[in-house]
Amino acid sequence: MKHRLRQYMTRLTSLSEAEQQAILDEILVEEYSKGTILLRQGEVPGKCYFVLQGCVRQHSVDITGRDITSNLYTEEQAIAIFNAHKEDASSEYSLTCLEDCVLVVGALNMEQAMYAKHAQLEGMTRRMIEENFGQMQEEFAAFVASSPEDRLKTLMQTRPGLISRVPQHQLASYLGMTPESLSRIKKRLQRERAELEF
To answer: What positions does the domain Cyclic nucleotide-binding occupy (predicted)?
Structure first.
């Protein structure tokens, strides 16, 4: 399973195989069952994650009691809650495993020690965050400017696997629509595709 992380390190660093192996030997890889809550809304985060296998949902309950999905993390995506700007450092989100997951687990209080020991690791982390942030900016801009149907079409093109991996009501929340609207749009798109194939 660590081969995914090795590929990622090869792409983002110039670490030698020996240096990569030294990091791989030190990191903690954990398996979590579907439904495991990694972080609860209101708790102070102490860990960050990298998904080797599975799907993790980022969500929060708003003041009306609605459970809103704000992100879905899958293979080769990093998960970190950035809240240093907050006085109490509590998380505004929960993180829940939607599937059985295999995750690299990093302790936030050990971050600086790991960077000191493996200098290129900090650069890799920065590039990972830059990639994720850039992708999030693009997705958010597209989300704001698009219709619910366009959002679904984009998701089908960019992350088609999510549609079968995530419960429909959570997928609808992620796309900013009701489950009924999502169902209607999916049926219409299937009908259009069938007509084109005919």
So the answer is: 11-57
